[in-house]
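During the reporting period the student researcher (J.K.) took over the structure-prediction task from the postdoctoral fellow and processed the backlog of single-chain submissions. One of the processed entries is reproduced below for the supervisory committee.
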Amino acid sequence: MTTSHISAVPRPRVGRFRFPSVFAPRPAFRRLPVPKKWSQRRIVAVQIAVVVAALGGWEIAALLTWIDPFFWSQPSKIWQTGKIFFTQGDAFTDIFFTLRATVLGFVIGTFAGSALGLSFWWSRNYAAVAQPFVVCFESIPKLALAPLVILVFGIGLTSKVAMAVALTLVVSTLTTYAGVQAVDPDSEKLFYSLGASRMQLFRKLVIPAVLPWTLSVLRVNIGLALTGAIVGEFISSQHGLGREILYAGQTYDIALVWVAVLVLSFFAMLMYVAVAWLEKWLRKGVVR
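J.K. obtained the following structure tokens:
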């Protein structure tokens, strides 16, 4: 190569724009920060510490009259009232009455609502006719229907179950119907092209596709069923924790109100754990 050819070769520009050096060190690989997950024992310890701190602060605030103990009560008095409630009162009768109404309302409302929502898949015309009535019933305040339900079904267990069903039925129906509308139409065409009948399509495609939507509403229905049972007991009842709360409120026994509320919270948590286990079991069945 001659000198003229060497001079004709373009040289790299020096200054603002520079060619990267082949031997320049590459930047080190940075890992994304991963938050350290606490152990289950540590989580439980923190939860217990929060509860103890809250109860201790409540007790101290009541003793120092930072809050009015007449209206807010205090943990020590609630503990004493709870012991009297469970040893001398009708605690177990009231708890079993409320729990039975809640569980029956939850099961009936969830299954009936899910079945109604799934039935909308069979006919678009049927779904178009029925959907406005379902939405209209959902918009009605269920508390306004409570006196009518008590008059029709009486003051026994049936009226409390009916109130719980009224609160859970429509939510399950609308949620399941939303899942029905989300079923992939291409998958339906594929099933039909493979010779599947309408019933086989419903069992093999629609139900597994809608099941996650139905499971998502189970935890919401726990609170709704419990609310329906308590509201029915507020209106008229011979037993139940709702009747205890109403009686304690009328007699200004705030400690007894707290005892009933804590018992309700405990059983709601147990139902939540049971539903979480059921959801995990059903999801494993769907995956398999």
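The committee noted the following: The two ends are 72 Å apart (CA to CA).
J.K. will present the remaining backlog at the next meeting.
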